[in-house]
Every structure is written in C-alpha cells, then in structure tokens.
C-alpha cells in the first residue's frame, strides 16, 4: 500500500461539502502522480455518486508538496488558520 485518500462529511445532513485529504506514506511512491490520480478518482466518485460539489483541503503551511498538489488540481486558498499553521483550500 502506498498511502490513502480520505473524504469526510463534517455536516451529517449536507453531502455537498466534503473535507478531502491524501497521504502517500511509502517514500518510493511519492512524486509519481499517485496522489493526484487518487484525489481525482475520489472527487469524481464523491461528485457523481454522493452529490458532493465542494471539496476542502486543510494543509499544513510547511507542507510545500501538498500545497503544490492541491494548487495543481485547481484548489484555491480561502482561509488560513494560524493557530494550527494550516492553509485551507477549496475546489
């Protein structure tokens, strides 16, 4: 297993917005496009099967690779949470 991609619906009655995250734990599997492909597949499934229309990613400010990955996928920054050193991006 290279890693995992997760989707969370933080509002039980609202499936239109989901928090999405990815982790490629295996170092040999990084920088090979797996994260991008896994995120695209998860978002397509969530949109087509679950009715999700907005995705939110909470990324550590120091995680340059993830910030670039989500930017490449079209996510835009909409919030910073300094107390947690997080950047929130949405699509």
UniProtKB/TrEMBL annotation:
Pfam families: Acetyltransf_3. SUPFAM superfamilies: Acyl-CoA N-acyltransferases (Nat). Transmembrane segments: none annotated. Keywords: Acyltransferase, Transferase. GO terms for molecular function: N-acetyltransferase activity. The keyword Signal does not apply. InterPro entries: Acyl_CoA_acyltransferase (IPR016181), GNAT_dom (IPR000182), NAT9-like (IPR039135). Residues 1-91 form the N-acetyltransferase domain. Belongs to the acetyltransferase family. GNAT subfamily. This is N-acetyltransferase domain-containing protein. It comes from Chloropicon roscoffensis. The lineage of its organism: Eukaryota, Viridiplantae, Chlorophyta, Chloropicophyceae, Chloropicales.
